[in-house]
Amino acid sequence: MHPGLQWRWRIKCTLFGVNVLLATDGSDEATAALRAAVRLLSPIDRNLNVLCVAPRFTRLHRNGRRRQDYERDILGETTQILEQARVALGSDAGTVNLLTEIGSASAAIVSRAGDYDLTVIGPRGRGATGELGLGPVASRVVEHAMAPVLVARDLRSEGIARVLIAVDGSTASLHAIETLSSLFDLDGAEVCLMHIAETPWVQFGLDENWETYSEEAKESSEAGVMEKELVREGDELVEQARNLLRIHDVSITTRVEEGNPANEILSEAERGQYDLIVAGATGARDLKHTMLGSVSAKIAWGAPCSVLIVREPE
Q: What topology does CATH give the domain 17-151?
């Protein structure tokens, strides 16, 4: 993010507080998302707005009922869901506003997202099975919401948060770190800055037995030169990211690896038992970063923990 934009955003958050939109349908995963968000977000000057979207009256709902009766009943159900959400957030949640709407859940959340500093959603709604993946609503919100989105899952640690930040040097990646720094509680957090240099044979179409090449063969090849450049670039990008977090009391480790970005980040998230992955969503397509456009979506889909997705600012 441009320094001027960073400064204006910090002033805005200081003067008006942080406005967060939390979507719920009353499911266990939505409730877990609410609780995870409260633990992850900074408790200072936050305004939590909980939204429950009820489906429209259709032929499937008729069964002799009038629209007015349906809307009265569905309003009662959404009110109950919202009150349960207020209880789940706890007494220390801060300012909590309850919102209801009738229509398409994904459309309602996406249309409102731009008015908030962050939108929080559970990975899947009612009737979900299995452990990983995104439901249809969460998928559409992640894909279409232009403001930052937190796909919140149960935290894996009881104490301080463990955060894995995917660093790729894009504007979106830097904006994601700034969003994390401004909105989340990083006091004492353990942060890992991870950069993945895409394996050279991906760009040059070499056989996947690149790792079996001799060091001499690697160094004398164009792919070998690219490999060294990518690793050097990764070290610089990680240091740039570290500088953005210097204002916080955090423990920072760094990793620069090679391979498929999404796969390596997901593997590290599982191995390191992280509570949150932070990733920028960019459409960059160049020689060094041919895969980055889909990395954030793959992470959101396959992560075992919460994921903060931040798009490149307009």
A: Rossmann fold (3.40.50)
Q: In sequence order, what are the beta bridge partners of 311?
A: 281
pLDDT band at 113 (very low <50, low <70, confident <90, very high): very high
- Token pair for 115: 């008015």
170: which 2 tokens? Answer: 């894009």
Q: What integer pLDDT is reported at residue 176 of this predicted model?
A: 94
Strand order in the sheet with 18-23: 95-102, 46-54, 18-23, 118-121, 149-151, 306-311, 276-281, 162-166, 190-198, 251-259
Q: What angle do CA 106, 112, 116 make, to 5 degrees?
A: 125
Q: How confident is the model at residue 64 (pLDDT cuts 50, 70, 90)?
A: low
Amino acid occupying residue 216: E
H or E segment and range at residue 195 = strand 190-198
Query: Alpha-carbon torsion 198, 202, 208, 210, what sign?
Result: negative
Q: How far apart are CA 93 and CA 91, in angstroms?
A: 6
Q: DSSP secondary structure string, 212-273?
A: GS-HHHHHHSHHHHHHHHHHHHHHHHHHHHHHHTTTS--EEEEEEEEE-HHHHHHHHHHHTT
In angstroms, the CA 64 to CA 75 distance is: 19
What torsion, rounded to 10 degrees, do the Cα atoms 210, 211, 216, 220 define? 30
Query: What is the secondary structure of 55-113 as a DSSP string?
Result: PPP-GGG-TT--HHHHHHHHHHHHHHHHHHHHHHH-TTS-EEEEEEEES-HHHHHHHHH
**17-151 and 162-311, same CATH topology:** yes
Q: What is the pLDDT of residues 177-191, one digit of tens each?
A: 999 999 999 989 999
Furthest C-alpha separation in the chain: 79
Report pTM.
0.83
CATH superfamily of 162-311: HUPs (3.40.50.620)
CA 1, CA 58: separation in Å to the nearest integer? 45
